[in-house]
């Protein structure tokens, strides 16, 4: 069976988490005898990294109206209006590829929302093509939303409804899909696709360390204050634990040295500790392996928390915004550790410090809690991938069961009440503000398009008024007018 797999891979700026999910999906399908074709922005790179076939994906424009228009044009092409797009358009290769395949998998990620609308529409286009050729479609390991404009919400709903099976990776996404009317028989609550991707190195050659990964996002705090407060917490952790600090970037342009590399430089510069190692950007497998070789993981990025929980490593995370909070809380809730994800305000009242120190002090109990769930979670993940292959093969058998709710970790977590109180107020406000901004962007797009159309109409009118044909016609109209005004003889 030949399956086309869409993952957000081959990007100019390498992203450990996106690549890890792609690798995990390719490995799970390959181990079950599936021939995989990875859609990529850099097929040559992906063929080398994945050891599979790879083909170009399609790129959608960023402006909301332009991506809506392009998706509509693709739909018109599939309905028989071949002139809706030129013959050299990128979508024709995708259409031929999916037509010649047996099924399509859209593997995990956090891009089915309006904040990353161009990626949502890329997935919608793949879904539309799959539906046209009646190819089974499975969607795996997704975060849905949380920020969706009205028009993008309809696109997402249509995509989900076209799938034989939809896997989501946190309870908030499961609820959003249910609220949208997706039947329970199509919907499975599960884990991130890369939950068990990480394999620890046999001998990393390092003294005991904590793995630290921070994105450049600082929420509502000024960058200097944000990074200085994180540095102080890490310094205190070093003092009480004796661990070194290994910074593991997950996303960066290695030429401009931005994103996580910049954030790590900012934090390291504010620290007093000397046992610090700032790694360069590594491939997904190596970054994951070093992460799970740590004694403690501290992060504001999503996949370090995923790798840590799957490997039984204590973790504490910081969410700089609502989008991060939904994903990180969801990832840790799948293991009963949601209280160890804190909002950015916890840097101000000391709760992040308290939680980080507690994660170290209670490390044995936390590791035991995670390990007690490990066998069950691995079995549930394998059951999911078995179900994926059945659905890709066109079987109409019962969907895999959702993962069982995790028992909450019972250690002392005095800070969690404050964090929950902040979420009850800040999360709805943050979501509404994000959606309002996205709707405004679309409205501005509409105005720009209307302005361009009006300007084009004025230009065409001026061109017409100045044309020879118009001058001739104008004289004719004048003569005709004189004739029609004469009194009858």
TrEMBL record:
The Swiss-Prot or TrEMBL record annotates one GO molecular function as: transferase activity
The chain positions of domain Polysaccharide pyruvyl transferase read: 16-321
Pfam families attached to this UniProt entry: PS_pyruv_trans (PF04230)
What keywords tag this UniProt record? Answer: Transferase
Q: Per the UniProt record, which residue ranges are transmembrane?
A: none
PANTHER family, A to Z = COLANIC ACID BIOSYNTHESIS PROTEIN WCAK (PTHR36836)
Could you identify this protein by its name? Polysaccharide pyruvyl transferase family protein WcaK
**Species assigned in the record:** Arthrobacter alpinus
The taxonomy runs: Bacteria, Bacillati, Actinomycetota, Actinomycetes, Micrococcales
């Amino acid at each position: 069976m030949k399956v086309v797999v869409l993952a957000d891979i081959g990007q100019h700026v390498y992203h450990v988490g996106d690549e890890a999910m792609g690798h995990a999906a390719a490995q799970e399908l390959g181990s079950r005898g599936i021939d995989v074709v990875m859609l990529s922005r850099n097929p040559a790179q992906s063929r080398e990294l994945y050891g599979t076939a790879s083909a170009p994906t399609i790129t959608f424009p960023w402006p909301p109206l332009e991506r809506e228009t392009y998706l509509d044009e693709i739909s018109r092409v599939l309905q028989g209006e071949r002139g809706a797009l030129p013959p050299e358009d990128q979508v024709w290769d995708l259409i031929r590829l999916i037509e010649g395949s047996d099924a399509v998998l859209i593997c995990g990620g956090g891009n089915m929302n309006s904040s990353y609308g161009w990626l949502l529409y890329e997935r919608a286009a793949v879904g539309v093509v799959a539906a046209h050729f009646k190819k089974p479609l499975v969607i795996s390991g997704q975060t849905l939303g949380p920020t969706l404009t009205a028009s993008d919400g309809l696109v997402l709903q249509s995509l989900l409804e076209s799938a034989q099976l939809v896997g989501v990776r946190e309870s908030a996404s499961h609820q959003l899909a249910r609220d949208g009317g997706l039947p329970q028989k199509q919907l499975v609550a599960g884990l991130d696709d890369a939950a068990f991707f990480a394999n620890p190195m046999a001998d990393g050659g390092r003294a005991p360390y904590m793995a630290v990964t921070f994105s450049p996002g600082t929420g509502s705090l000024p960058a200097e204050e944000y990074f200085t407060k994180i540095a102080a917490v890490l310094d205190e952790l070093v003092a009480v634990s004796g661990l070194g600090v290994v910074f593991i970037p997950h996303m960066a342009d290695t030429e401009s040295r931005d994103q996580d590399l910049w954030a790590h430089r900012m934090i390291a510069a504010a620290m007093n500790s000397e046992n610090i190692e700032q790694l360069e950007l590594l491939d997904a497998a190596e970054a994951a392996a070093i992460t799970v070789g740590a004694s403690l993981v501290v992060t504001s990025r999503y996949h370090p928390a995923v790798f840590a929980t799957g490997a039984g490593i204590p973790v504490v995370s910081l969410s700089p915004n609502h989008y991060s909070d939904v994903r990180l809380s969801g990832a840790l809730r799948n293991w009963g550790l949601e209280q160890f994800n804190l909002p950015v305000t916890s840097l101000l009242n000391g709760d992040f410090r308290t939680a980080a120190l507690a994660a170290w002090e209670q490390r044995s109990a936390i590791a035991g809690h995670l390990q007690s769930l490990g066998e069950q979670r691995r079995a549930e993940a394998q059951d999911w991938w078995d179900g994926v292959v059945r659905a890709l093969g066109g079987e109409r058998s019962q969907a895999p069961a959702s993962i069982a709710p995790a028992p909450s970790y019972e250690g002392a977590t005095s800070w969690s009440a404050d964090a929950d109180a902040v979420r009850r107020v800040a999360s709805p406000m943050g979501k509404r503000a994000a959606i309002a901004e996205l709707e405004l962007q679309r409205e501005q797009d509409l105005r720009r398009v209307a302005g361009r159309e009006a300007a084009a109409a004025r230009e065409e009118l001026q061109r017409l008024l100045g044309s020879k044909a118009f001058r001739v016609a104008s004289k004719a109209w004048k003569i005709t007018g004189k004739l029609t005004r004469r009194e009858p003889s």
